[in-house]
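Session log. Operator J.P. requested a structure for one protein chain; no other inputs attached. Running the standard single-chain path with token output.
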Amino acid sequence: MSKQELKKYAKKQKRIFIGSITLVPYRTSDAKVLLGMLDREVCEQIGWDQPKNLRALQFFLKNKVSLFWVLYADKRAVGCIFLNLKISETTAWKKRAANLGYFIDRTHRNKGYASLAVSAIVDFAFNKLGIVRMIAGCLVHNTYSKRVIEKNGFRLIGIERKYTMVKSLGTYVNHYLFDKVIIHS
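Structure written below.
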């Protein structure tokens, strides 16, 4: 399947249920609540510019993110998880990878939601989309995110030195880079 075909397939999936959360494909009606979660600290952690308004967020999600799910717990949006697909094929080689990202609203952290969501999306990407390599990362001071990634079987493959300027810290910070690989029969 091409990247566009994979995106269409994934968007047809209604919901993904795992443990106490439900992952729902992004709808434009979710933008308002997500905008409220995307404060400066969250945007610095995931490497996004803080959206100035709903329209800017909707444009970004439509054009810059391949697949995007909103996490619901007790019928409330508590965060999101997303994949950027890296799919290409030539006569010489085939690439089926994805970059993984997520965030949890600060009022709902430390409840296991991120670990559950990552587990569900990793399973979905490997087993339904045919992804063979998934990449995830976090800033070195984000110990909770590092734990979520490691708990889901990713291995540390390196540290990107002076990865990004975190304006609130006034300095460049390092970034852990992880991957997880599966071989399909």
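Operator note: The helical segments are 3-12, 31-37, 40-46, 54-64, 113-127, 143-151.
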